[in-house]
Amino acid sequence: MKNHDFRLxxxxxNLQKSISPLFLLFALAVSIPVNAEEQNTNNKVESRYLKExxxxxxxxxxxxxxxxxxxxxxxxxxxxxxxxDQEVINKTELGAETGSEISDPEQSMSAKGSLLINSQAxxxxxxxxxxxxxxxxxxFNKTDDxxxxxxxxxxxxxxxxxxxGTGPFGDSSQDMLLKLIFPLPTKTLKIGESVDVPAQMPFxxxxxxxxxxxxxxxxxxxxxxxGNHTCAQFNVDIDISDLxxxxxxxxxxxxxxxxxxxxxxxxxxRTFVSGSTALLMQFSIDAPMPKMNIQGEATPNIxxxxxxxxxxxxxISVSLQE
Length: 322
What we know:
Distance between the termini: 49 Å
Number of domains: 1
CATH architecture: Roll
CATH topology: Lipovitellin-phosvitin complex, beta-sheet shell regions
Oligomer: single chain
């Protein structure tokens, strides 16, 4: 297989995984290696999509006299349909894997589909992503023509979504997906008040499953009018970057997921009207490679250390279809 073909197949596989909403925040952080010299998670780096969060300037309205209930209403059978859009930009380095001198291929990806919240009339709902079509654009260097790959993804369903926006999954990726797409505060808030919702994500450190801890800070910014919807505006600050590495593990490991979100929640119908999230994911690994010995064969020429890092910039938006 040619180097380009091998790299293209691997990048395609990784990007297909990263566009999957189940995979949105976690597995991407260990799937795409890039030049470790470019990565330093201690530097303050922000998502290029942050400015997209504040494009809409809705008319502010008075604070309601009665404190709203910041919960979905799943007491009746109904379906809330949303458009789902996602953009992802990555830059990769795969030369060490293939022996090729070609480096830094840029990958951009987009996905469009439908997101349904199917109320089960028992206080729970199903979250369904369907009709998802992805398009991936890959250029290995500035002189190459970009490769375009398109794919239709199978439906994705999460059962047991609760009115507080969580699911019965603990700290799994499904639970985190729900928290970050539809963020709801865990208590009643006044304008300007915030609440921190604990968050954590798994991180694979050369086979050891670690946990990166952090929080989503949800602030009730104001009340606005969107069409005929009186909405609470939630501004969210996401920081999941506290990784404690056991002393028994050799090497250096860093993992960080930081970003912001703005969501609008109709306080009368208890339904999200729209929202968007800008999220920058970064990780780096510098660790010893496993030693290999094949009986009767020459020992393969394997690098002494595994050095990888990644930056993945994500933008996700949802909008109620009426």
